[in-house]
């Protein structure tokens, strides 16, 4: 009992608790930070493909090529939803609004406790810069 009542070594226990707490926080951060990186990449993905659609004035092969290159660059494979007022065959008249929504599900695996899928959504809005003659 005398050993248990002794205050010697109290600092060691505090240090061990602090180190364990710090390791838990660091390991949680390592698992959560990739979600923020994926969200940033998804925002860039949406902005890049929207800019391609604005410049070309249509959602066609140029945009599809840009989507493929962005998939290779980011490693993401998102669902892409376009919204625009089409003139004809995916052509968008000058100054008409173009909206794109990019959706990706990212999984946070918290060690052996299971996975937590998180749905990330990025939206971008722009206007066509091409005038299409009738």
Write a brief structural summary.
The chain crosses the membrane at residues 12-37. By secondary structure, the protein is α+β, with helices and mostly antiparallel strands.
Q: How would you sum up this structure, described in words?
A:
α2 runs antiparallel to α3. The N and C termini lie far apart (96 Å). A hairpin with a 5-residue loop joins β2 and β3 (115-127). Helices cover 49% and strands 24% of the residues. With 134 residues, it is α+β, with helices and mostly antiparallel strands. The model has no long low-confidence stretch (mean pLDDT 90).
Topology:
Elements: H1 2-5, H2 10-56, H3 61-74, E1 79-84, E2 97-109, E3 115-127
Helix pairs in contact: 2-3
Strands across the major sheet, in which order? 1-2-3
H and E string: HHHEEE
| Count of discrete alpha- or pi-helical segments spanning 4 or more residues | 3
**Low-confidence region ranges:** none
SS-based structural class?
A: alpha+beta
Strand content: 15-25%
Q: CA-to-CA gap between the ends?
A: 96 Å
């Amino acid at each position: 009992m005398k050993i248990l009542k002794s205050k010697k070594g109290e600092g060691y226990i505090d240090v061990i608790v602090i180190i364990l707490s710090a390791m838990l926080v660091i390991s949680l951060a390592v698992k959560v930070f990739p979600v923020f990186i994926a969200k940033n990449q998804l925002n860039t993905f949406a902005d890049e493909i929207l800019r391609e659609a604005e410049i070309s004035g249509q959602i066609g092969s140029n945009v599809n090529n840009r989507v493929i290159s962005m998939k290779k660059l980011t490693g993401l494979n998102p669902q892409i939803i376009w919204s625009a007022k089409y003139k004809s065959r995916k052509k968008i008249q000058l100054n008409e609004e173009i909206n794109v929504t990019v959706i990706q599900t990212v999984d946070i695996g918290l060690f052996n406790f299971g996975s937590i899928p998180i749905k990330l959504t990025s939206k971008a809005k722009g206007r066509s810069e091409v005038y299409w003659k009738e």
